[in-house]
Write a structure and sequence with these properties.
The protein is α+β, with helices and mostly antiparallel strands. The protein has three domains: 232 residues, Bira Bifunctional Protein, Domain 2 (BirA Bifunctional Protein, domain 2), CATH 3.30.930; 60 residues, 2-Layer Sandwich (Herpes Virus-1); 91 residues, Anticodon-binding domain (Rossmann fold). 32% of the residues lie in helices and 27% in strands. It has a seven-stranded mixed β-sheet, with helices on both faces. The protein has a five-stranded mixed β-sheet with strand order 20-19-21-22-23, sandwiched between helices. The longest helix is centred in the N-terminal third of the chain and has 20 residues. The structure holds glycyl-adenosine-5'-phosphate. The site of glycyl-adenosine-5'-phosphate has 18 residues, from strand 10, strand 13, strand 16 and helix 11.
Length: 459
């Protein structure tokens, strides 16, 4: 990552090159919503596939589910979300803007640790430090009130309170309510894990910082059901496993750090975030690892009446498993990868020639190779090569403009290889492959092209 990078460069690249567009743009947008374009959708899918590989495929006793977003509302009473999933908000009496009290304090003094304060302590702090309204500069705030973050909607034909249902604010409950089903149907023995990739929704009122904070987002959540007493070992293990996962995706080790929580969510005994150093935003959470104890399964046992205990077949012990959760924000991971990969390289200072390049790992790159015929006359043969490669991975075809311009277009979207088919190719059966990062070129027989590219796509 270029250390002077600002988020607006990323936003512009994403918008102009088909990664991420403002949501409902032709209607003036909708705050904190973004749509993934063709390249953004590919990048997102590549991250999902990498997660699936590390968390489901390569791990013994790990099972993926795909639960519904809409769940019985009792789930959210049991989970504690109806009662306490809220943000501390206050309004500026002067300009009527609404803010999160903890954000006001964090922006005023990042060392103040608003996350460890009660509502009353936050109010006293804002008053004592005379923190001004970020919008109008006045200091005239209402009391702090808790606003529930869940989106609610109504099912059926009437809008009465009985038919209220919620859009899930986290994936986790889909894994918990299926714990018995997965255990029985897959003959799973503790410790085992259930993972899920899916959408979650939160009524966030604070400005989003691009896709960092949105009202609709995707999580990749991983819940490990373990014996009470083994939880801390799993908790420490998954903190490190998560950090390694991010490094494997391509995030630099010195742009990642752990942040242990002082103030814990209602369900957690221990909690730690992995944070990434975003341009313009600073350190921001991309993962959370939580020791949730037996809170969730005990509550679901209480609210559903189902027996959630586990009988150890070897020791005959019966207990409610503890849950260690490791949750990954997919959109924030994608944003971090884009920020990490973005670079502006000065090629020729005198000519003010700068190339924008995304140094994405080839496994993450939306397009793996771009096939370029040197002349339009060579188009049919070059297209044959494109079609053959496209049976195995995503390939682009570009015959517009000079080769130099085509290289730059490929660099900007992170395509690791450009394959040029020239007049010699007709006779020697070889193509020129140019590497995105080193810009070096090698001549390769067409028959070896696929394996040459695939070698670099391993994750
Ligand atoms: N099941 C636990 C849970 O949901 P969380 O820390 O609230 O924990 C998990 O969320 C991850 O989801 C975060 O680490 C973050 O990456 C992502 N996330 C949370 N809120 C988000 C939002 N409004 N927009 C984008 N990503 C978000």
């Amino acid at each position: 990552m270029n250390e002077e990078l600002t988020m607006d460069r990323i936003v512009n690249l994403c918008r102009n090159r088909g990664f991420i567009f403002p949501g409902s743009e032709i209607y003036g947008g909708l705050a904190n919503t973004w749509d993934y374009g063709p390249l953004g959708a590919r990048l997102k899918n590549n991250v999902k596939e990498a997660w699936r590989r590390r968390f489901i495929q390569e791990r013994h006793n790990s099972f993926e589910v795909d639960a519904d977003i809409l769940m019985n509302p009792r789930v959210w009473e049991a989970s504690g979300h109806v009662g306490s999933f809220s943000d501390p908000l206050l309004d500026c009496r002067s300009c009527k803007m609404r803010f999160r009290a903890d954000n006001l304090i964090d922006e005023f003094d990042p060392e103040a640790h608003a996350d460890a304060m009660t509502k009353e302590q936050m109010f006293d702090y804002i008053k004592a430090h005379h923190i001004p309204c970020p919008n109008c500069g006045k200091h005239d705030f209402t009391d702090i009130r808790e606003f529930n973050l869940m989106f609610q909607t109504f099912r059926g034909v009437t809008n009465d309170a009985k038919s209220v249902i919620y859009l899930r604010p986290e994936n986790a409950q889909g894994e918990y309510v299926n714990y018995l089903n997965v255990m029985r149907s897959m003959r799973a023995k503790v410790p085992f894990s259930i993972g899920q990739i899916g959408k979650a929704f939160r009524n966030e009122i604070t400005p989003g910082n691009f896709t960092f904070r949105t009202i609709e987002f995707e999580q990749m959540e991983f819940q490990t059901f373990c014996k009470p007493g083994d939880d801390i070992e799993h908790y420490e293990y998954f903190k490190n496993y998560g950090r390694q996962f991010f490094e494997d995706l391509g995030l630099a080790a010195d742009h990642l750090r752990f942040h242990d929580h002082e103030k814990l969510a209602h369900y957690a005994k221990a909690a730690c975030d992995i944070e990434y150093l975003f341009p313009s935003i600073g350190w921001g959470e991309i993962n959370g690892t939580h020791d949730r104890t037996d809170f969730d399964l005990s509550r679901h046992q209480e609210y559903s009446g189902e027996n959630m205990s586990y009988l150890d077949p070897y020791t005959n012990e019966r207990y409610i498993p503890y849950i260690v959760e490791s949750t990954y924000g997919l959109d924030r991971t994608v944003l971090a990868l884009l920020c990490e990969a973005y670079d502006e390289e000065v090629i020729d200072e005198a000519k003010n020639d700068v190339r924008v390049v995304l140094h994405l790992k080839p496994a993450m790159a939306p397009i793996k190779a771009s096939v370029l015929p040197l002349s339009k006359k060579l188009g049919a043969k070059a297209m044959e090569i494109r079609d053959e490669l496209a049976k195995h991975f995503m390939v682009d075809y570009d015959d517009a403009g000079s080769i130099g311009k085509r290289y730059r277009r490929a660099d900007e979207i992170g395509t690791p290889f450009c394959v040029t088919y020239d007049f010699d190719s007709e006779t020697d059966g070889c193509v020129t492959v140019r590497d995105r990062d080193s810009m070096e070129q090698v001549r390769i027989p067409v028959a070896e092209l696929r394996s040459y590219i695939e070698k670099s796509l391993q994750f």
